[in-house]
Design goal:
heterodimer; A: mainly alpha; Cyclin A, domain 1; 15 helices; B: alpha+beta; Phosphorylase Kinase, domain 1; five-stranded antiparallel sheet; three-stranded antiparallel sheet; disordered N terminus; kinase (chain B); CDK (chain B); RNA polymerase II CTD heptapeptide repeat S5 kinase activity (chain B)
Chain lengths: 327, 366
């Protein structure tokens, strides 16, 4: 399913931005070393004002990787937990042997591989989606809980914590952080063969620790909606009252947006959210959706203009749309 | 057109230099990536410096650097639903907001029964300074505090976060005079205007009229009303609109600013409280006699902040662009601002009672 989404080659954008950030940091450090430490350097606020807001998020700082980095982390975590679990099994066997000398010798164990865990994770992510449909949670809760789940199992192996209860914990946590509060008893009462509340409360701490207490998640939906509003302004001008629903482009934009939301749901599975910015994923969803709705030409025009705006570091795009519409 | 895009892209192809940088960055990142799962051993609590209903604050040390920190310990034992939502909110927003005028969350760690937020150590707050009878401050000092408050608040708002509990007590002051917005326990993310929210937020004296009217849909303007009240309080050195209960709060606001009408606030009658209650009509009390030292520009900004109609109330960004901040006198450099770490015991007691009452509404989240 995933392979149907074509992601434009934008890794370089990621990396370039990161380099920029690094160079900024080094400049800041130099400033701090300078003797007049008491006064705030003049550019301190400026850097906050001009910086891309997304680059300040914990998602960018701690949860954005390259494919190689992801694999490395996973291999490492997997290796460590195999050692731990293997050791425990051996200890258990030795203990058993002290009681009963006749037990069969320890058989080699087929541990979970990185790939196994990936496939299992995919299965449980669809489970989260099912739960969300059942509880009628919003798509923000869905996106957030899936991301919590992914982040948790990035630094932890399924051999250490069984996924079923982790799924419920991630959902419960996501409800709290996305303003869809539900009482724990009420929540668990509706889960068949659910664990006791104490289990969830304890896992809540564990999950929070592994996700570094970073509860804020930027999902592609938010970016997608932003693109929708921006493209609408691009097509119609900034005045909301002038939006003509009968207009062909506007109609095609609406259908494209609806389709792209479906792609955004699919994009939640797998590693995409670790590899790309939510806005990049959202744009990719739009590009794919535009092909089914003959919106490609309009979208390409929009992307081209945006590209120029970014290149020239122009600030007020609404103003520029007006110029483009007039000319 | 795609060709052009490709061509533009070509100018962006990474050179060898960038590749080298990448390698360097990767090695940096590897160190970064290995985070300590629960850094409980990196901090030591030294002494208790404050206590609230749900949390105790300690002074402590970050052992790896020797840095002085404040550790806010949130007890978890009493909550039947696990983590308290206010705790989750506070952590969630502070993890994202990195700004000179917003309190820094350094770390979070936990053990079985409590949750600990490691915050930067700030020994004073604006309330203490306002209450300290022996501290004198000038018009330029007030401008400096207002500027820092609005900068911090603007950063919250552009990050789509409503603070919902601004008051002098939550505007903390560092030892070098920097003002930092703290206590995000009532904050929430904002963005979909039609989402229903509770109107039981913000400490009463700083609560915007639309909240007192029971509005379920509101926006960044509720924070700006609070900033207006703080601005007035800084000039008067006493709370501007201190109501004893919600209805009296409205009465006090109307006496001070005049009763709003359908003309000054279109749509007001549709809100829950005004649709049921008939208010007595008061004229506006002239400000000139009250704020004797304030300049014309200051009163203009104050009036824009204390505008009844939330849609017409000034935004944090526009307030920062207001002539008040560009006119003389220039805002005082933070390091030269008056400072006070002592606590006036009588006043803090009074405030605590008020806080306790407000805490009840804190539990009725959403």
């Amino acid at each position: 399913m995933e392979s149907s989404i074509v992601i434009p080659s934008n890794i370089s954008i990621n990396k370039n931005n990161k380099n920029l950030e690094n160079s900024n940091e080094s400049v800041k450090l130099e400033n701090e070393d300078s003797p007049n430490n008491n006064e705030i350097p003049k550019n301190e606020y400026e850097s906050f004002h001009l910086a891309n807001l997304y680059e300040q998020t914990s998602q960018y700082r701690h949860w954005l990787f390259t494919k190689e980095e992801l694999n490395e982390i996973r291999e490492e975590v997997n290796k460590e937990s195999i050692e731990k679990v293997g050791e425990n099994i051996k200890k258990e066997w030795e203990y058993q042997k002290q009681i009963n000398n006749n037990i069969p010798p320890l058989k080699p164990i087929n541990f979970l591989t990185v790939n196994d865990q990936k496939l299992l994770a995919l299965f449980y992510e669809t489970k989260i989606s099912d739960y969300c449909k059942f509880f009628k949670f919003s798509r923000n809760v869905l996106a957030t809980s899936i991301v919590y789940f992914k982040r948790f199992y990035l630094y932890c192996s399924m051999m250490q914590y069984a996924p079923k209860n982790i799924v419920l914990t991630c959902l419960f946590l996501a409800c709290k952080s996305e303003n869809s509060y539900i009482a724990l008893d009420e929540f668990l009462a509706k889960v068949p063969k659910g664990p006791s509340p104490d289990v969830i409360k304890e896992l809540e701490l564990t999950v929070s620790q592994y996700i570094r207490f970073e509860y804020s998640v930027q999902s592609p939906f938010w970016a997608l909606h932003g693109f929708y509003l921006d493209i609408q302004a691009f097509l119609n001008g900034p005045d909301k009252n002038s939006v003509n629903v009968e207009d062909n482009s506007q109609r095609r934009l609406n259908t494209t947006f609806e389709t792209s939301c479906k792609y955004a749901f699919i994009s939640l599975y797998g590693d995409l959210i670790f590899l790309y910015w939510p806005s990049q994923i959202a744009l990719a969803c739009l590009v794919v959706a535009s092909k089914n709705n003959s919106f490609t030409e309009d979208l390409e025009r929009y992307i081209f203009i945006i590209y120029i705006i970014i290149k020239c570091k122009l600030k007020n795009n609404i103003y520029i749309y007006n110029i483009i519409i007039i000319t | 057109m795609t060709e052009v895009i490709n061509n533009l892209n070509d100018t962006n192809t990474p050179t060898n230099d960038i590749n080298n940088d990448k390698k360097k960055e990767n090695s940096n990142k590897k160190n970064n990536r290995k985070f300590v799962i629960n850094p409980i051993n990196n901090y030591r609590k030294e002494k208790k410096i404050g206590e609230g209903t749900f949390a105790v604050v300690y002074e402590g040390v970050q052992l790896s650097t020797g840095r002085k920190v404040a550790i806010k310990k949130i007890k978890l034992g009493d909550f039947k639903d696990g983590f308290d939502m206010t705790a989750i909110r506070e952590i969630k927003f502070l993890q994202e907001l990195k700004h000179p005028n917003i309190i820094e969350l350094i770390d979070v760690f936990s053990n079985k029964t409590n949750l600990n937020l490691v915050l930067e150590f700030l020994d004073s707050d604006l309330e203490k300074i306002i209450k300290a009878k022996d501290v004198v401050f000038s018009v330029a000092d007030i401008k400096s505090w207002m500027l820092m408050t609005l900068r911090g608040l603007y950063h919250c708002h552009r990050s789509f976060i409503l603070h919902r509990d601004l008051k002098p007590n939550n505007l903390l002051i560092s030892s070098n005079g920097q003002l930092k917005i703290g206590d995000f326990g009532l904050s929430r993310d904002y963005g979909e205007p039609s989402e229903v929210m509770t109107s039981q937020v913000v400490t009463r004296w700083y609560r915007a009229p639309e909240l007192l009217f029971g509005a379920k849909e509101y926006g960044y303007s509720v924070d700006m009303w609070s900033v207006g009240c703080i601005f007035a309080e800084l000039m008067l050195r006493t709370p501007y609109l201190p109501g004893e209960n919600d209805m009296e709060q409205l009465d006090i606001i109307f006496r001070a600013l005049g009763t709003p009408t359908e003309e000054t606030w279109p749509g007001m009658k549709l809100l829950p409280v005004p649709s049921k209650v008939e208010f007595s009509i008061y004229p506006k009390t002239p400000w000139r006699n009250l704020f004797t030292a304030a300049g014309y520009d200051a009163l203009d900004l104050l009036e824009k902040m204390l505008t009844y109609n939330p849609a017409k109330r000034i935004s944090a960004q526009d307030a920062l662009l207001h002539p008040y901040f560009r006119n003389k006198p220039r805002p005082t450099n933070p390091s030269k601002l008056p400072h006070c770490t002592k606590e006036d015991i009588n006043n803090s007691k009074k405030r605590k009672n008020l806080d306790g009452e407000e805490k009840i509404s804190k539990r009725l989240f959403v």
